[in-house]
Amino acid sequence: MGRWFWAIVVVGLLTAAATPLRPVYVLAPLLGLSIWRVGVASLASFRNGAGHIPSGDPVPLDLEIERITFWCQGCGAEFLLLVRGTESSPRHCGERMTERREVSRGL
């Protein structure tokens, strides 16, 4: 579709420049084709489905043994992790958060 799209755009622009037709009659369908192509590309992203969601059940953590917190270097926000869903750290303020592990002294 990529080559055909650009070929149609070039032919349409040449037609608008070379003929006595008003350019609106040639450029409007090209604009509609462009909007249609962006819409199809946006909907095609749904083919992946929920690929970003981790598979399997979340693992509950025992806070008496180990306490895991995530800290944002940008604003200083801190989150306590209660259930581990994935190994990657969350994002906050557009950046990955820093993981801190605190082990209980009682063990």
Summary keywords:
single chain; 107 residues; alpha+beta; 3-stranded antiparallel sheet; two-stranded antiparallel sheet; 36% helix; 22% strand
Q: Please, could you describe this protein's structure?
A:
It is a single chain. It is built from 2 helices and 7 strands. It is α+β, with helices and mostly antiparallel strands and 107 residues long. The longest helix is centred in the first third of the chain and has 22 residues, at 23-44. The termini are far apart.
SSE blueprint:
Layout: H1 2-18, H2 23-44, E1 59-60, E2 66-71, E3 78-81, E4 83-84, E5 91-92, E6 95-96, E7 98-103
Antiparallel strand pairs: 1-4, 2-3, 2-7, 5-6
In summary, what is this structure?
With 107 residues, the chain is of the alpha+beta class.
Q: What is the straight-line distance between the termini?
A: 63 Å
Beta-strand share of residues:
15-25%
* Helical/strand content category: alpha+beta
For the largest beta sheet, what order do the strands appear in spatially?
A: 3-2-7
Got a strand count?
7
Shape summary: rod-shaped
Number of helices: 2
The low-confidence runs, each spanning 5 or more residues with pLDDT under 50, are none
Q: What pattern of helices and strands is seen along the backbone?
A: HHEEEEEEE
Radius of gyration: 27 Å
Q: Give average pLDDT, whole number.
A: 78
Q: What profile does the largest beta sheet have?
A: 3 strands, antiparallel
**What is the helix fraction of residues, given as a range?**
25-40%
